[in-house]
Each structure stands twice: as C-alpha cells, then as structure tokens.
Amino acid sequence: MTMMLLGATLIFGRQFANASNFKALLISFVSIGFVSVGMMSLLISGVFDLSVGSVFGVGMTMVAYFIADLHFSWPLAAVAALGVCALCGAANGFLVTKMKINPLIATLGTMGILRGAAIIIGGVGKAGLPESFTELGSKPLLLGLAAPVWLFLVTACLFMFMFRHLKFFRKFYFVGGNAEAARLCGINGERILFSGFVIMSLLAGFAGILYCARLGASTGQAGEGMELRAIAGVVIGGASIKGGKGTILGGVLGALFMALVFNIIGMSQRISAYWQPVINGTILILAVYTDVIAEQGYFGKIFGKNDKQS
Amino acid sequence: MSDDLPTVLTARGISKEFPGVRALDRVDFDLNKGEVHALVGENGAGKSTLMQILAGICGRDEGRVSVDGVECELGSKRAAENAGISIVFQESSLLQNLTVCENLFSGEPPRGKMGLISWKSMLSDGTALLKELNVDVDLNAITGSLSTTTQKMIEIARALSGDFKILILDEPTAAITVEETEQLFAVIRKLKADGKSIIYISHRIKEIKEIADRVTILKDGILVDTHDVADVTEREICELMVGRELLDFNYVSQVRENIALEVVRLSGSGFSDISFKLRQGEFFTITGLAGAGRTELALSIFGALAIDGGTISIDGRARRIRSPWDAMNAGIGYVTEDRKKLGLFMEMGVAANMESNNIDSLTPGPFSVKKSIEMMASANVDDFNIRCSGIDQKVKTLSGGNQQKVCLSRWTSYKPRILIVDEPTLGVDVGSKEEIYSILNRLTSDGISIVMISSDMIETLSMGDRIMVMSAGRVMRIMDREKASEEDIVSLASGLKLNGVEA
Hints:
The structure holds 2 protein chains of 2 kinds. Chain A has helices at residues 2-12, 19-44, 52-68, 74-98, 103-122, 131-138, 147-165, 167-177, 179-184, 189-215, 226-236, 248-267, 275-296, 300-309; strands spanning 125-126, 140-142, 145-146, 218-219. In chain A, helix 1 (2-12) runs parallel beside helix 12 (248-267) and helix 3 packs antiparallel against helix 4 (74-98). Chain A has one domain. Chain A is an all-alpha fold. In chain A, a hairpin with a 2-residue loop joins strand 2 (140-142) and strand 3. The relative contact order of chain A is 0.18. By secondary structure, chain B is an alpha/beta fold. Helix content of chain B is 33%, strand content 26%. In chain B, strand 17, helix 16 (430-445) and strand 18 (449-454) form a beta-alpha-beta unit.
C-alpha cells in the first residue's frame, strides 16, 4: 500500500498527492468502506452477500422516498429507511439459515428483487431534497471532512472493538472456522449468520442513506457492482472464502487499497472507466487464488512463517 | 467337504503396515471354488485390510496372491476385477445423486448400436437383477432417497451384474433386515451352486454358522486359525477371536450415591428403547460394533440429534434437551470421535480451540476476556501435558494425541456434570492413551460422571465401573466391569444372547 502511494505520487505528482484528492478519495471510500466492514463480518462467519449493492440502493431510494413523498423529517426518514434495510437483511438471513438456500443463490436472488423493488417504490431518481439533509452529507464537520467520513471511522473502530472483545462477535470466527464443530460447542450458528446478514444490510443501507445526503438526490442504479468491489477488497484484506479468518482492520485496508487503485486509474486519462470492472474482477480472482495456494502449501513456506508468529 | 474342491485363490504371507500399526502380519488365506469362506475378528483385526488388498484397493508390503494358480499383482481395483475379484464394501459406494439404474451399471453400461449406452437393455437387465434379489424398487428412483437397507441390496446387485469368480462381501448384513438377509443368503447359495467363490465378512457369528463352509479367524492382524464351520460352535469362534492382556492400569472407582443422569426408554434414529442410570462419579462404558447406534445415542443425549421418544433426567429433574446448548446448560459435555471434522477448529490456535465451547461460561457478561482465555489455555496445556510450541500454535499441526487432549481439556474446563467421550483414544499414540485414561479417572474423583463409548476391547475391560453392550440400536446387557469377560461382550455385541443359542 505504501509502495502504491509512493508510486502514484511519483507518476502523478501534485495531482495525486494533494489534500483535495485525498479528501475526494476518502469521501468516495466511505460507501465501500461501510459495505466492506459488513462483508468482512460475513466472510469471517463463512458466508457472503451479493445483494449489498441493491440494499445500498434501497437505503438511498427509501430515505429519499420517505422525505420527498411521505414528508418525513430527515431523521425519521433515515431511521425508517434503516428499518427497511434491516428487513432486507433479515430476509437474506431467513433464506440462508431457515430455508437452507446456498448464500450465493439466496443473495443473488434478493440482489435482483431488491434492486427492482427499490425503483418500483422510490422511482428511478429523486432530487430536491431539503438542505438540512444534504448538509449532513457535504458540510465539513471537523478537519474539513464531512459527517459521513467521521461516521465511517467511528463505525469501523466500533466493529474492530466488537470483533476483538465481544463474545457474540468472537463466535463468528468459530462458525466460519467449522460450523458443525461450533454447533457441538454450543454455538448457535444460525443465530450468528442471521445477525450477520442483518448487520450487513444495516451497514449497506446506512451507507446508501449517507450517499443520498451527499448527492442531494437518489438514483436507481446506485451501488451496482458494489458486491464485487467489496468482496475483492476484503479478500485482499485477509478474509478467506472458506471463512474463519480475517480482521475488520484488514477488511478496511483491503477496501482502501481498492479505492486507491481506482483513484489512480481515474487520474490517468488514458484508461477508460470501463476498465474498472475488468480490473475489479481480476483482482478478486487473484486474491482468492493467492488464498487457495497459501492453503495448499504452494507458497506455504513463505506464508507459514507469518502464521506461527501471529 | 472343502478338501476335494479346487483352490481358486491363494494368499501367502500377506503383511501390511500402517503408520504405528501392523495391520496384517504374514497372513495366509485360501479360497476354494464354490465355497463360502467367512472371515471374522474384532474391530481392527485386519479383515477389511486383507479384503482391500485382495480387491486391489490397498497395496501390500509383503506376500503373494495367486488366482487360479496365476500370480497376480492386484495393483488396482481394475486389475483385481480383471482377475475376477469383485467387492461389496461395508460403506456405501453408491453415487447418491444418480438413479438406481445408473448405479447398477456404473462400471460397464450395456451398449447398443454404434457403441452408445443402451438405456433399454439397462432397464431390462436391471429389472432382472433386482428381481433375483427380490428388491422392489423403481429403477428410476434417485439412490439417495432410498433407505440404507435398500441401498445395500442395490450395491450387492451391482456386484452381481459384473463377471466375477470371487465375490467379497464386507459386512453385507450390518445394515439390512432379517428378511433381506434371507434373500441374500438364497442368492449366495445360488452363486455357490454356479461355482462362484465368496468371502464373507461378518460380526454375526450366527450367520456364519448358517451360510459359510469354512471360517478364518484374525486377531490383531495375525491369523488365528481356519476351521470347517461344521467343526466349531459359535461359542468357540467367539473364544478364538478374543483373549488379550489387559492394560496395566489401576482404575479407582469413585461412584457416589446420587443418580446424575437417567435415560428412560430413549429412542431416536439408529437406536431404540434405551434405559440406563448413571451415578455421580461413575464411569460407564458403552461398547458394541460399528453401527450399533452408540454415537447416535450420545449425540441425542447431547441434543445434536432429535429424539423420537423417551426422557432424559439430570439430578432427578427431567430436562428437555433440543440442542447442544440445552445439553450444556444441563451440565452435559461431549467429546466427539471425529475430532478433525466435528471437534476442532483446525486452522485456529490451541487457545482459540479451548475458548470455543467456553466462550459464554468462562467469564460473566458480554465481553470476552483475553487474559482469562490465556490463563485457561496455559493451565490446560500444563495439566494435560499438551506438547505444543505455545497456546497459539494451530491445532492442525499437533499430533493426534495432543489434539485429543485439546478436545478433552476444553470440556473439562467447562466443568460438566456428565462428560460423554466418544472413542477417546482413537488414533492416539500409546503414551497419550495412558495419560487420557488417568485424566478420565481423575475426573470421576472430581464427581464428574463419564460415559465412554469405546470399540477398544482392552480399554473397555480395563477401565470403568459398568459396561453397556449395544447391538443393532438396542441394549443387550448392562454389567459390572469386574464380572465382564471378553467372550461375553463379543457375543453380545454380535447379537448373540448369552446362554442363548449356544450353551
């Protein structure tokens, strides 16, 4: 990561290394940051969620809908939108834990359903939201950074703390490490996974609400492709597709790495924006492959040393 | 009767070593044409290994095998099949997601015009095969949806579909009903009349008397004897299988007065109508053959499997146990027999594994206290003499014995009232075994009741207060360990009642 920062500074000079670019980077990072915290939590417990982008869209669309169409005050609208997102997460959790549908398929399904439902209810887009709400998203609060950045930092720190020190969140590691053994240790894996999905959707929805405040409008397509970026980021950050591994800090750093990559691509005028998903997908596959060969011991000697010290 | 028949298979001096055990030690085995030759011995006697060598699934270290006087290498299952040897495994080898018909002809499907698979002749051949065995099943049914007994019959039918001189049946009746056994015997007699030879492995001595011509007894990988079945009684066969030195372990009984666990008429999948009482500090061993329903019973008491009926009381109070956490709250702990799959978190450290079942109980409140976990882990490592480089060493890098001690110690840290240990010394080296025995004995002196499930005859007879023998999901007898003999246990476990068929 440090090398990337140095490299980018060398190539782009002031264009990269200036306060406003870093600010822009941080702001664009907030959305994916929230989602990555949730995605890391889920991957630790051995599952993942493809519907995050759609839930992000639900959060955004619903808060705009509540404010503009139902004339809720913005705090009430935000709480109501979060409630809807929690229900989306509960639906994912129900499909996976009670109906025993493979998480990949269950969340692929809800990804489509929620994207469509959000647009049907909230429309393709809404503008002209009240200033009291949009101020929240853009007005500098501290050190020139707006509320979303600070809210993200607080959330990330909170999750780091919880995953280290709370019994409930420690159980995520055991469920992901060996679900059947966890059950025979008296850990209710279904409850853990269900909570994981609800937390994931709350975070994605919250990010959507903040994004809506920053933009001052809602758009139907917001959050598309987010699942790919989030999963790639957290796997780079040390999660394993097999579960039981990873830290929240790792997930945040992985997401930051992805954000940096795209910031640099954005800076170079010659690379088309359409390359983004290509690079995204490539990084995901490479990251998972590295995890696989580390497991198989191909690079075992290099990685093994690190393991013993940790 | 068997002397005048030509020999079809001769095995001489077969030896096979697995890490730490000599599974077979210079074993000789003969099979005549048109003969049913039974192979008996306890768990671990080497029967399955010998059969796997003959079927080309596992290589041999020493020895020669010849079929019809021609020496064979038997390097693969294919090679064995070409030599005319076919096998039906103890465990199902059917593909669960395919239809019955596809499974029947998975080896050599019948071909029609242009070498394409002929579904028509597959269906008609399949119907004929199953009719011979009197199995009533839809050929297009998905195999996984059928009962285990039906699946076993399909497996036998599959073996019959091929061309063979020698058929190995490894405990074919372990999972089938009495009627189906009769059906199978009728088929075996027919095969015999056709001049085929059959090697028949079974724990059920009664069946051997009924179907076999000769019987070979193995014990600890060594050939004990081969007899004409007509010359020996069931009792004598049992006696030949047993007879070993007991452990040099001085078990000290710590039984208290009060009843810690009472199970009344418990039924579930794999067992039925099980009743027993366990006193505080008592060491209770449940023994029996594989498939007797012991692990299912343990998992049901621990809430991991659903029960169909019956009650479980702890300290005189009936408890509803529907999940492992219910059982743990009631004071029950369970150490699994399959520590790799169901017990440990292989990618995690020793301390984390010890935290796993103690997360909620170790400290009060919602916070996990790292220091308490580390203290518990260090204490356990010292107490149980676990050899590891530190409490964060990944358990997958520990030896089997040390892994087992991690499993045991994390449950003693939970301080259960009743601890169920399922095959606690399976895959454990000799030194660790003795340590585990003394740990278990020490637990009883702390007032913990132990239920040990064991297939190991030596530890069953050397440890504990009482022994319960199970067979086919039922209790055969509960007896004092001091009065139990190896012969009694073997006959009970094989389903023979004492003083029953043979006086």
